[in-house]
Amino acid sequence: TYLCGGSLLSQTWSLPAAHCIPYAAPQGTITVGAHNLWNSGTNYTIKSIVNHPGWNRYKRNNDVALINHKSVAFSDTVKPICLPSPDVCFNEGTACVVSGWGYTTERGPISDTLQEVAVKIIDYQTCSDSTMYSTMVFPDSQVCAGYVDGQKDSCAGDSGGPLACRLGPNDPWVLYGVVSWGWGCARARKPGVYAKASHYHDWIEETTGGFGKVSLPEKA
Is 159 in the active site? Predict the structure, then answer.
């Protein structure tokens, strides 16, 4: 059993982190619409999984994958998240939201109910400082988010889940990051590092064949 998050991009495609994918032949199900980890949501069978061709398990770069699964029924509680265009970039200090069922502290346990926490975008110059992650962060394909003094962060079990940022007060939320890695959880000067979804826009479009025109159900 693997506890990892992911984001629905369409009825048949989801985006998790590549490090969530087991070495053995990928198989199983995804669960959507869950609030409680153990007794809610609907399962859909996985058809295939595509890791990014540049995924490097040791450097943790290009930590994204695509899951093709049986068609998901959208509803008021199950909807896809918008994929940002390649040129979308959020300024330092922008407040975003990361969610998941991961550890509530660095040593656990996991949460039974879906959790969310507000984190702020940290610029590359700060995140790559010698007292933080030095040269371990890739500026084009990764983004740091959290707080320099720690306290709030994603954690183990949140991997693959969404870092969602809003384009404006009246604009939609977009998938800006995918939970990838970090040293510990909520440690000072060790914020979360996320795969930058906008960087992978073209690869996602090419791999999925495009899914920009997805019809959502009308409200009654």
Answer: yes
Query: Which position among 10, 14, 19, 199 bears the catalytic label?
Result: 19
Closest CA to 115 of 161, 67, 50, 167: 161
The strands making up 7-8's β-sheet, listed across from edge to edge, are 7-8, 13-15, 65-69, 42-51, 29-32
Confidence of residue 215 (pLDDT cuts 50, 70, 90): very low
Catalytic residue (one of 10, 63, 69, 99): 63
The pTM assigned to this predicted structure is: 0.92
Q: What is the pLDDT of residues 107-148, one digit of tens each?
A: 989 999 999 999 999 999 999 999 999 999 999 999 999 999
* Residue 63 appears among annotated catalytic residues: yes
- The single residue of 141, 154, 159, 180 carrying the catalytic annotation is 159
Q: Work out the average pLDDT over 180-187.
A: 97
In this structure, what token pair is assigned to residue 61?
Answer: 């770069």
Q: pLDDT tens digit string along 82-106? A: 999 999 999 999 999 999 999 999 9
